What we know:
Layout: H1 22-38, H2 44-66, H3 75-87, H4 92-113, H5 118-166, E1 181-187, H6 201-220, E2 225-229, E3 232-238, H7 247-258, E4 263-269, H8 274-290, E5 296-299, H9 300-309, H10 314-321, H11 330-341, H12 346-353, H13 357-371, H14 378-393
Parallel strand pairs: 4-5
Antiparallel strand pairs: 1-3, 1-4, 2-3
Helix pairs in contact: 1-2, 1-4, 2-3, 2-4, 2-5, 3-5, 4-5, 6-7, 8-9, 10-14, 11-13, 12-13
Amino acid sequence: MTIESLDRPELGxxxxxxxxTARDIDELTRTVLDHVAASGPLxxxxxxxxxxxxxxxxxxxLIHRLNGQPVRTPTDGLEAAAAGCARAGxxxxxxxxxxxxxxxxxxxxxARSGPTDTLGVVAGMNRVVELSKLVTAAVSKAYVREYKADxxxxxxxxxxxxxxxxxxQPVPEEMRFAAEYFVLALALPAxxxxxxxxxxxQVVARRKLRRLQSALxxxxxxxxxxxxxxxxxxxxxxxxxxxDAELDALVQALSAAARVPITATxxxxxxxxxxxxxxxxxxxxxxxxxxxxxxxxxxxxxxxxQHQLSRPGIGRDVLGNAxxxxxxxxxxxxxxxxxxxxxxxxxxxxxxxxxxxxTVDYRLRRIGELTGFDPARASGxxxxxxxxxxxxxxxxSLAG
Length: 400
């Protein structure tokens, strides 16, 4: 059934016609608004503005319907009034409550003016219920349309602000932005389902991204700005929304939502520094991934040395060349890396590599002989570890 299906003359179900003058409808409207005001926090101005328009249209429809007359007000009028409520920030449940109160008033009118026979009473009640359903649908439709338009406008504004900040452009005065941001660089690994041949890899990846974006909106209430793809990206979190210590829990929650272990690095920046900070954060992320660090949040303080050693320059080249003698001995370079990653444990290194601990000792001695830096000595180990980091930033990176 539609509104239009009711727009036809019918015999009235009432023994006495209900007055449909503008004055009487206004009086009934005030009665409904008094009931709504007594049960809600809305201001008098809001009730006698947007909500009043909705209620009056409903009562006008209802009275003409009960009188057996065609519904004279088009659907567009109700939807326009409801849209005004949405734009004014009035909750939809408040508007629907007002509609329901209006329907109760209609039932009272049926009771006072209605027929004495059962069929007539049922017919009158059916008309009230019909209009209640149709009005509820029209109000809901208007709200959904307004919310979609508002969401699209907000999304556009958010995207524009994100682009301005990450692009290093001056922020226009009309754009609202935070005084300071945590600039997070995120790396999203593939979800296990992305590698299942019977599933569409792109569809699975997009679902992962949507889960992440939804969690961001839920956890930060729309305060975060982001530029993300299925592989990761950049998230700007106002420092007023989270503390540095809370970022770890935030990334854990995002990982749970995306259902993949997220690796993140963070740099703090003012709005005019965001572009540079984002570049630094992603360089740190490359360093963290190249070192094989665990998922979670990694900060500049813990990666400063590694980050500096992996930057292009003569220092990196000289350090990286120290491992050149191992290029033809991949098992030795792997042993050195595992030995350092296991906190210089012969036993754990041997277990990881599947060899005898004595073989680890032999390989470490060979590394010292070939490179001239003894991994058994602090000075030699420091140089070899630095060389590994430098190699990580070069074209022959150890990453992966």
